[in-house]
Every structure is written in structure tokens, then in C-alpha cells.
Design a protein that fits this description.
Length: 225
Amino acid sequence: MQHSKRYRALREKIRTADPVPLAEAVRILKQFNTTKFNQTVEVSTHLGIDPKQTDQNVRGSVALPHGIGKTVRVAVFAQGENAEKARAAGADLVGADDLAQQVKAGQMDFDVALATPDIMGLVGPLGRVLGPRGLMPSPRAGTVAVDIASAVREFKAGKIEFRNDKGGNVAVAVGKLSFSEQQLAENIAAFLTYLRGIKPATAKGTYIRSITISATMSPGVPVSA
């Protein structure tokens, strides 16, 4: 791949290909803040799991201490009192059959989908549409919740949901390049701590095989696992 002159110049600031401690990696990444827009910072990890084995798939959600620096649009599948609670908590879209019809029609203008347990019979068939986009509500990911108001507030405040891809990789946004070094380091540490805590019992060998942080238009900086 042919990289731009700017990208190559930034790449030269990474003086080693070896992983470095998180604080140093964040310090290096902050030097890449040379664009006119506020770049998103992402953490990418490669896990020692077999994605073909259901019991080794990794999925979850974690609240980052400093949020992710963007407005998160939350859709909630709920009815009755739960629907009212979701609206009061700040959900952007709330509905049952009407929301399901919007999804079926391809109208998914939201970043996170939540649901209450009692309505999963309606939501289940939407898996073929929501699943490929990583939006299918799941108890394991914390997106199926009895206390729907708390769930809405957490995701609006910057709670992130993630799952591994077919290659055993997990990539998540953890903030903006305008964040301070401390804020970025704390967000990244919170994610990695949670990720380590949900290691599948059947996964053998090294669990987190590599960690890289990068911004929207920057090279990746390898981090010590």
C-alpha cells in the first residue's frame, strides 16, 4: 500500500517496532495530532482464541472513565413503562413493533441497540439484520437489560460494546486524539482490564497476543501486553 508523505513522516516518529508501555505509546500517538479534525483513537487486539468455537468467542461491554468523545445514538426496544423509562433516560429511539419495522426497512440510524428481556421475542428475528452490523441486543454484551434506564444512561455516557471478528481480533474506539494523555491511557487501560477479565476458560496459550493503538489517520503504535 502506498502511504502519503504525511503518513510516512509520522511513521518515522515510531523509532521501534517493538511494543512499548502504554503511557509511552499514548505519548507517541498524541504527536500524530496534525489534522484539522479530531481523530478517533482505536485499540486493536489480536486474541489467542479460536473464533470457530462458540465457547471461545469474546463479547462484552465496558464503561470507559472518560467516554469516547462522541454523541452516541441509542435505540431501545421496549414497551409500556419500560419505554417511558428509556425515553426519560435519554434514548434517541424507543419502540416495539414500529421500531422493528424500521429496522427491517434498513433504517438503523443508531449506534447501540438495547432491549428489555420481555421483548426479545420480537427482537430475535431481527438478528439477521442487526447481527452483521454488531447491533443485536445480547445479555452477554449488557445490551439486554432489566434496568433499561441505567443501561441507556451508561451507553449514552460512553459505554462501549465489542465482540471479536472471524480472525480473533477485537477493535474498539476509546476516545479522541484531543483527549489528554492521561484520559486516553485510563480509557485504554479500562478496556484492556475488562478484556483480560473475560478470557474464555477454553482458550489456551497466550490470550492477548498483540495490542496496537492508532488514530483515524495515523500509523499504529504497538503496546506491551
